[in-house]
Amino acid sequence: MKHLSLIAVLLFIGSCKPSDTAEPSETDKPQQTQTGADILWCKVNGAPHLYKGKPTMLHHDGVHVYQLKFADSSRTVEIYADGTELYRDGIDMHINVTSETANIPLTNKKYKISDNHPYRYSQYNIDSSYKTYWVDSTRSYMIFTRFDNTVGAGTFEYHGFDKNNDTVHITEGFFDIVRE
């Protein structure tokens, strides 16, 4: 009976799918699309990062795009990617927009990533302490290539600093996310 239990455990382990948590390489870079692929790709200090999918109760990693509308007709758009399980980090970017047009944000316009709230690139260090990189809004931007009722897509660059003036540089960023 003991041998049968061991064989059953080994068969179960052998039938499990390989983990989808391997860090991506440059060859894993997806095509930049505007179809709602639920991805965000970037390089964090030169290292490729791919955030994908929607978070669930059991799987926290994923991407979101939100738009909040305020009484004064201004809007805030948030692009959020959680990589807690794979990279032990997350990126949270906001732009503030005031416009009379219904198509906010406008496509192909460079928007400054907001610095008037503590929006940040956040990273967990190896020792699991929380470290926040505040946005350098003079160098950080987002450009939407599509923003409608179903998809938010575009490109971005994020530069930030922490309380010790350590820096993070997030470059070559693009996203293609189904709106919720």
Structure description:
There is one protein chain. The protein has one domain. The protein has 1 helix and 11 strands, in the order H-E-E-E-E-E-E-E-E-E-E-E. Strands 1, 2, 3, 4, 5, 6, 7, 8, 9, 10 and 11 form an 11-stranded antiparallel β-sheet that branches. Strand 9 and strand 10 form a beta hairpin. The longest helix has 14 residues.
Q: What is the CA-based Rg, rounded?
A: 19 Å
Average pLDDT confidence is: 75
Helix-strand category: mainly beta
Unreliable sequence segments: 1-20, 118-128
Write the layout of secondary structure elements.
Elements: H1 2-15, E1 39-44, E2 47-52, E3 62-69, E4 74-83, E5 89-98, E6 110-112, E7 120-124, E8 130-135, E9 141-147, E10 151-161, E11 167-178
Antiparallel strand pairs: 1-2, 1-11, 3-4, 4-5, 5-7, 6-9, 7-8, 8-10, 9-10, 10-11
In short:
The chain has 180 residues and is mainly beta. Helix content is 8%, strand content 47%.
Keywords, separated by commas or semicolons:
single chain, 180 residues, mainly beta, 11-stranded antiparallel sheet, 1 helix, 8% helix, disordered N terminus
